Amino acid sequence: MTDGYVVVVGSASMDVKAHMSTLPVWETSNLGVVRQGVGGVARNIAENLARLEVRTVLLTAVGDDVNGRQVLRKCRDNGIRIRHVRIVEGARTGLYMALLKPDGEMLVAVADFEIMRYVDRDYLLSHERLFADAAMIVIDATLTDEALATVFELAARYNVRVAADPTTPTLATRLCPYLNRLYLTTPNAAETTALCGLEDPAHDRDTAIDAARHLVSIGATIAVVTLGEQGIAYADGSGGGFIRAVRAQIVDSTGAGDAFTSATIFGLLNEVPVDEAMRLGMTAASLTLQSRETVLPDLSQELLYDQLVV
Fold this sequence. Notes:
4-stranded mixed beta sheet; 14 strands; globular; alpha/beta; 34% helix
């Protein structure tokens, strides 16, 4: 790839995941296994990229608390460059709590990212030189409207490509004003309603392909719609396609979408054909689904190509 680096801007958090032993009985205690780890969509993408040997700089905010120190330690240990992370005195680090069904799929989650208001215009402009030399900018939708406007202002000033993960259906609407300025976007089926203006979300091969093509018609260079166990639809200016998902035993679905986005970006940075970049993304997602960890601990370039979806 280019000698440059990727700037990842967005959330970093502690994750608390409760894996239910049975379907929940509401308003009472339920048996299960509770695990804690480091997460945040942007941070997860940054770690995946770093494991794939992509130089990665993270711009985010954490509190000066135990969770913030743990987040920073995890990032540093896994090769993410955290020198420019904002540490906010008296603030609490982002927290994400997920309840997982027995099959590993998410039942419900609660995200507390109030701290993202500190990733503001002044903070981003103070690191303008990082944007100037970046090979790509990657964002999640936890950024405020002010922060998003600043990121796209800097991206335009230095002619840097922007990839965006819509994050959740609610947050995805923040990206709508910038769809025609995105190099890559990777909504899941539910997020297509917010991004594409669909009355009903994409739900199968044909509707997902239509949604991806619509995003390209609006101006996105490459659009991907992920359909979980069905697969992914993608489109760019030369066409598109659909790749069926590999059947795998799901241990924990958290982080699979972030793995897909990261490995796809890795492929595109290395100028592989779009369909191959999609297969790299599918492979990373499939492997992550089979792990309890939000980011696959042994993810590597070699593993991706050894297990490449065909």
